[in-house]
Each structure stands twice: as structure tokens, then as C-alpha cells.
Amino acid sequence: MNELPEVLVIKEQADKLLDGKKVAKVLPPTKKHGFAWFNVPPENYDAMMRGKVFSHSDAYGMYLELDFDGVKLVVHDGVNVRFLEAGEKLPKDYQLMIVFDDASVLCFTVAMYGGFMCFEGTHSDPYYDRNKFGVHALFDSFDEMHLRQMISALKPNKSVKE
After folding, report:
1. Considering the entire predicted model, what is its pTM?
2. What φ, ψ does residue 126 adopt, rounded to 5°?
3. Residue 107: per-residue pLDDT
4. 116 exposed, middle or buried (CB, 10 Å; 0-12, 13-18, 19+)?
């Protein structure tokens, strides 16, 4: 499962590699994966993303958010992201593939489990919201006061006798 340090690295790579790339098409899974979750049917992603241009990405906890002219593709948990230049051999099986107008590709595979969300505007999911709007330990905004608030919010374990 990807955690914040890995997602931050992928975010930096995506911002460099995808800058200004236009989506030519989005291909749905070649192979069903019982633990690959989509917020809408993956066959709908093409209509939502085709013609959109990559603008930037963000990293929130285990979530990587890719922005294409306001349409966001968010991947999380065990989704592996691979960039392939035009002409490189494409994998046979994948859970989602974005083909850009220069024939380069972003290929997404799921090892054990992982999720995909595609939406325009905002999307509400409690785990996504907690990661997007939370304070992460690697950021300057995470200070001793925040740590103390987290500790005081913990519920005592009633199964442990004092």
C-alpha cells in the first residue's frame, strides 16, 4: 500500500512527466480485479476525461490526485502507477490506462487492493476527506499541539483493566 512518502514522490514525478499532456482516451480494465474499486463504472472514465489536459497533482496521505482541467482522478491504497513513453511495450493486464495525444501512457494496476475515483468539482468520501483535510506528520503544520489533541481524542481501551 502506498503511504504519504511514496505518494509525494509519485506526485513530483507526475507533475514533471505529465505537464500539459492531453488525454486521447481512457481504457477500462483488461482484467476484472475483485479488489479494485471505482466510484463510477470504469467505462465512464473515458467520457469524463477525454480531451482534458493535465494541470497538476496533489498528494494526501495514501491518495494521489491527478487534475485534468478540473476533472480529478484519484487513486489510493495499492494502486501502482507507471508512465510509459510512446512505443514502450504496454502491459497485457491493467485496471485503467490513460493514453495521451503524444502516445505516452499512464498505466494503473492493482496488486492486492486499491481504488479509483473520477469526478469533477468535489467528491465526498470519509477516508479521502480525512486525508485531504487532515494534518500529516511530515508537514510543518503538524506540531506538538496537534499531537496532544490527537492523543486526548483517543478513547480508552475498555478491555484493559487498570
Report:
1. 0.84
2. -60, -35
3. 97
4. buried
In the block, residue with C-alpha cell 491518495: 63
CA dist., res. 106 & res. 104, Å (int)? 7
Per the CB < 8 A criterion, the answer to whether 101 and 49 are in contact is no
Q: Which residues of 38-48 are buried (b: 16+ CB within 10 A; e: fewer)?
A: bbeebeebbeb
Cα torsion 70, 75, 76, 82: sign: negative
**pLDDT per position as a tens digit, 54-84:** 999 999 889 999 999 999 999 999 999 999 9
DSSP 135: -
Q: Per-residue pLDDT averaged across 124-141, rounded? A: 77
C-alpha grid cell for residue 58? 496533489
Please enumerate in sequence order all residues whose Cβ is within 8 A of that of 153, keeping only pairs 6 or more positions apart, or say none: none
- Other C-beta atoms within 10 Å of 30: how many? 13
CA distance 100 to 92: 18
Alpha carbons within 13 angstroms on the beta-carbon side of residue 24 total 10
- Reading the block at residue 118, the C-alpha cell is 473520477
CA nearest to 79, candidates 49, 122, 109? 109
DSSP state of 90: P
Q: Nearest 5°: phi and psi at 21? A: -75, 140
